User: Fold this.
Amino acid sequence: MSIRKPFFWLLLVMIGFFALAPRVTGDFMLLQDLSVVVVSIILVSNLNLMIGYTGYVNFGNIVFFGLGGYIGINGLYYWGWNPFLSALFAGAVVGLLTLLLGLGVLRLRGPFFALATIGVLEATKAFVSNFEPWQGAEGINLPFSVFDSVGGLANVGWYVYAALVGVMAASLFLSYWVKTSKFGLGLFAIREDEEAAQVLGVKAPLFKALVYAMSGVLPAVTGTLVAYKEAVIDPEKAFDLHRSIEAIVMLMLGGQGTIAGPILGAVAYEQLRSYLLTSEFFSHFHLIIAGGLLLLTVLFVPGGVMGWLYRQCPALRSILE
Amino acid sequence: MRGIIASMFDGVLVGAVYGLAAIGLSLIWGVMDVINLTHGALIVSGMFGVYLLVAGLGISPYLALVPVAAAGFLIGLAIYWASVHRMIGRPHLMSLLATFAVNMVLIGLGTAIFSTSPFNVNVALPGITWGGYTFTGTKIVAALAAVVIAGLLYAFLYRTREGKAIRAVASNRRAAELMGIHSSRVLAVAFGLGAAIAAAGGALIATLFTFDVLRGSVYELKSFVICVLGGLGNPLGALGGGILLGVLEGGIAPFISVSWIPVIEFALFVVILIRFSQGLFVRGRAK
Assistant:
């Protein structure tokens, strides 16, 4: 990562756009729409660390988001903490748990890891659905008094959005830093050939566990922020396998292994989805269209939009990363 | 004590049916090294196939197994040519994503047609009573049917020329091709066969429990557990794995509330995967 690269400034401009657009226009609907896009960019960008950089599919990536949401809500509601502090706390706890889990689960390779991630998601969901302190399958409904610390319901959307943009910036720069660091090179080596990488001195199990934990921290923070804004969290919504899959679709669409890909994929997919859900005819076929899109991408353009752009115009490689 | 034994025996019956469904997954996994994530959707299509045949034509659900399996075979062939064929030999990521995409399309279609409300297939069979515990007739017949179908598959794989070709391709595709076996045709047939067995398993499950369009993921996860328990790429091992899982479920059922069973099952799944991965991968590398 270097400030001399044009891409660094491109990222900053884009983040600035997200930060300022709703502020300048004062449009509350735009704020809502952009919040959804920002959350998707965060999830996809962190998922990219696993799928794009390391070559490990995490089908259960939403578990970070959901568990983070629960831990954060626990902090701000039961312990009366500041919501943003709780969000950071949730990120730290989930990161630590994921690191421990990763040291075990990442002994698995390739498809076995992918299967285990579905197991981890479903086990966590089933556990939380039975966990009485978190009100089991009912979920937790927050009273509006939790919004007092930010000045009531009217302000919470703006505060949370600002925090989300901050988390998005952190996610994108994390991706950028990893990509240009020695650690990232190790991950790429694991992706290309894990055995060869180990022979050359890459500590594959440790690297994988680290990147797994790393990819969990920021989604967990986001989970708390989103649950706080919506004032409700329940297991069905927090651990929705479909959202995991949608993140994968967005990533493949935009281009795995790149930094701009998750942004393009998330923006394009959310646009498409808001069209599909509002259109009378297509709202029933939402899943079919998302699946079809994923299949076509995997079959014909495995590099996604970014891969296609690189092929059309190789000079872009040095500008868009 | 007698209650636990009865519960475990009940588990054996249900487990044999789970095992049959898992054979479909295991066969495809073993032959082409592709994890078929459309497995759950295939199970569900078997369930709805038997529902439509029983409700529409009024035939016995056990007779309906034949057309359901045949339809499963054709769907399997279609899935193979649409998504899997181009993925053979490419990174696992790609075949996982491709089959998952097809799964989404199938589930989406199912939801559009049947919504997500529950369905059931009514079968009236006399049960067997033992010391105050009744084993329902449907479970006994379904378990027997599962064992018979697994036996037929075994005979096919070990006694016929086609079956031997499938085993040859599974053990070494290159060498099989050099011996004049048309490998992509064999792979397509194996995938169709796996799909047919998954559909038949789903059809039998439909005679035992209520089901809905989204139920496939539950049985798909059970199938993964069973495949890992029974040894990958070993279709008959899957039947044993199914029975083992059934006994386990039956054995713990009397002690805890039903809603905790998934927690234990998925945790077990992850633990078994980790514990057995070493052995599995030694085999993977030797290929």
